[in-house]
Amino acid sequence: MRLNSSKKSLLIRKIRGIFAIMNFEAEIARRRTFGIISHPDAGKTTLTEKLLLFGGAIQEAGAVKSNKIKKTATSDFMEIERQRGISVATSVLAFHYKDKKINILDTPGHKDFAEDTFRTLTAVDSVIVVIDVAKGVEEQTEKLVEVCRMRNIPILVFINKLDREGKDAFDLLDEVEQKLGFQVVPLSFPIGMGYDFQGIYNLWEKRLRLFNEGNKTQISESIDFDNINDPSLSDHIGEKAASQLREDIELVTEVYPHFDPKAYLNGDQQPVFFGSALNNFGVQELLDAFIEIAPPPLAKNSEERLVKPDEKDFSGFVFKIHANMDPKHRDRLAFIKIVSGKFMRNTPYLHVRHNKKVKFSSPNAFFADRKEVVATSYPGDIVGLHDTGNFKIGDTLTTGESLHFKGIPSFSPEHFRYINNADPMKAKQLAKGIDQLMDEGVAQLFTLDLNGRKVIGTVGALQFEVIQYRLEHEYGAKCSYENLNVHKACWIETAEISHPEYIDFIRVKAKFLAKDKQGQQVFLADSAFSLQMTKEKYPAIQFHATSEF
Ligand code: G4P
Asked: Model's pTM, two decimal places?
């Protein structure tokens, strides 16, 4: 059959269209966007570095941890971070491994920056939790996991530092189950520990992975071993360790359920791996299993509807704003997670809150050692958009639809102080600085109903210093603080504002009432006792611990 030229070009366009869709779907399917969370010092940075090494994203030979990577990694943008040696910023590290594009969203481990981590968790599709084998489940891990579980994020567990003496593997698995509410499924199991650590048995691939004797920084053997009852096991690890491993694996098989990928994706099962990030041991097992089982970009709920990644139209949301990364340019970078469709450079998109079209000439993609301008990004990717103060955390960008993605609500801060202007000539700069820092989510601002005084609320005391430093260095404004005795901020809800109880509450507690930045009514309770008494006295009023209810 011969086609005339118009039919031919129609056919070519159709075929091209089909290829474009297939390509778009393949790009989504190969993306894995996740965060690593842990209590400080459990080994999150070390594990991140080792993952980057596997991806060839950094070229650091051997297994020795290098401080140089820490210093040049993108997590070190801010001067204040360098000064304090605390990872204040949450950065993005992308790399390719096998046929996957992996986006690691780095999270600050320091508890004073927990809110930053909470917000980053709105942008991940899964999480790896790192636990120190000697310390077990620590406080910060519990808090972060709680937030993950609010969203049913799929979680993998990496138990680290097996080269050191630690807790018995079964006791630790118990602890993880009890403290984190997990249903664990070990996919690898250690052979010995500390001085006697010989390697791991990989239940996922049914392989023995053994350390190089005398030099625990290398894998000497990786042996297929699907029947650990085979007597030749003792040739590899010795008689004693072989019988111990057989016993352990039998127990694992009896006590823990089979790995069920669906249960993992629903947040109902948490696979566990053992290893030593510092010695590069067990990391590849983790990565190989991760790319196979971890979810590609997931659909996300907006107030209007569920938005799926493979929809044609673009949508995305701001989960982080990072200020003044380049000291020569006083701009900010808004980090956008792409939820659906393709994000293209120089294309007008709707800034939903402003109801205004905006386009971006130099959207940035982030890699371990560099950032670069990208023409097209796909769901799961993070792009950094230059911003001069138009974005707020939680803002949505779309091709045209009015969507509002649901995020993590604000929680009550732990520390409260009045903020005062210390340089009357710079009142404007101070107001602008405070406004922008709050949009970035550095802290929360409350304005007292009674006298309009401004109160800053933070998760950690350190943030007051960060704010003061940044106001001075980025906005040329000076502030001072004044102590304020507040125990907790509660968001207030009542069915009707004409209810006598509400009227009485507003009158009696006038001194303790404030508005948050969105204008929501907040009660600043000065003690746990007074909060309790107030709740009992006014049953018609609801006191919420978060800003969304
Ligand atoms: P974090 O990001 O979770 O805070 O932890 P980080 O990776 O910085 O690791 C904390 C400490 O634990 C580091 O030692 C690191 O070398 C060590 N570490 C990480 N993984 C392992 C492991 O598998 N085995 C052992 N034995 N140690 C491990 P440091 O002395 O605090 O820092 P550095 O001087 O090594 O940089």
From this structure: 0.83
